Amino acid sequence: MFICKPAFTFKGLMVPVFTPFNNDSQRTLNLAVIPQYAEYLAKKKVTGILVNGTTGEGTSMSVAERKSVAAAWANAVKTTKQHLMIQVGGVPLPDVLELAKHAESIKADSILCLPELYFKPTTVEQLTEYLKTVGKAAPNTPFFYYHIPMFTNINIHMGQFLESLGDKIPNFAGIKFTSSILDEGIQALYADNKKYTVFLGNDQLINAGCSEGMDSFIVTTINMFPEYSQEILTQWKGGNVLKAREMQAQLTKAVMAITKYGGWVETMKIAMPFLTNMEIGPVRSPLFTLPLEMRTSMAKDLQILGFQIKM
Prior knowledge:
Helix content is 44%, strand content 12%. It starts with 11 loop residues before the first strand and ends in a 7-residue tail after the last helix. The protein is α/β, with parallel strands linked by helices.
């Protein structure tokens, strides 16, 4: 039977959104915030949304919660017309398959999948077989692998993986490459005659990625100040390399001012209401809510950099 590969045409910037939780003992979901969140991003000209990723604490939620969040975003983007990517991995395979099927049923534009996180794939062949199984659960939706070795400790070379893949997974469209090993990311970009889309997931390497031919990025700071990432891409397209480098330097300073106070999601989620009108609530355990003195100090550091802070 001939299977038509689903088309994937999205390029540019996609934002990994936070999951809004209530400030109660269970950190219950606050789904009512999501339509406002989508509108806020749309007004900032952000056209792509990633749900239930690392920034969204996807692996800290139950399957039912992840479905609820995904469905709320699917409903919101009907109005905002944003591309919707849903991350389905990081749980046992039966749950991954359930989440993939659900993502396709709510008409996600693409699906992203972490690898198995306990019995880890250690070879290209093992990873391919795992992803082939997941891809079959949502055969009509473009499918991406989530490479984030700092959390998964899976260090399969992405250039070699993509070069070997061929047509083994008919709906496979590319990877999210969240690593600072840029030469590996470039090899992935050029694998099989640039067959796949590679989203770089490193806020501090957008400019460097552009210099090597990358054109698609999934970075958390788009939540707070999308203008920086947008301007870096605009300046590169216009050939203004020095201006792009200057914008990257400013973005990197902001990242450093935020993340020096703790882990990535813990600090970024604190910064979000400082810099926007979005109240998205706290992180969920085992992540740590920063004490007041740290939050105050972060706000002052951002003010020194010229940002207007909402307290």
